[in-house]
Amino acid sequence: MNRYQKEFISIDGNVFYADVYSVLVAFGVKCPAIQHAVKKLLMPGQRGLKSEVSDLYEANKSVVRAVDMAYARLRDSDGTSDEAEPEPMAEPEPEPKPKPKLVTWRRCVPVQISRWIESGQIPSGWVALEAHTQPVETVRQLPEGQKP
After folding, report:
1. Range of 11's domain?
2. 107-128: pLDDT as tens digits
3. With CB atoms 3.0 to 4.6 Å apart as the test, which of 52, 100, 103, 116 could cross-link to 44 if both were Cys?
4. What's the rounded Cα separation, in Å, for the pair 92 and 48?
């Protein structure tokens, strides 16, 4: 049994296996457009190649083609037809393309505290990353040259 064969139980209770081609032969489907549509409709999106929407879209196109072929056969059989030509079916919207996954990149650099600098003495081009505030009295009590 291959992956396209399915298990069936007959009316008399016997188990048998069949694939889409066996079903088409059993029902006497001769039109290739109908065969294609049936194949797409029996397992839409399950064969691993196309999505469900894509298979249904293709099946719809095959049915439209089968209608055109049937009308042409009817018209060609006697040169005329009592049946009105079918109106063209509206084409369904094609499957939208998936939106790309967005990725945000950030430039990151390691930051090391090089030294504490009083607010009024920050060199140009430097950016303060952290601030620490203390009362002036506390700063005056620190030993000479030591900064918070």
Report:
1. 1-105
2. 666 666 566 777 777 777 776 6
3. 52
4. 22
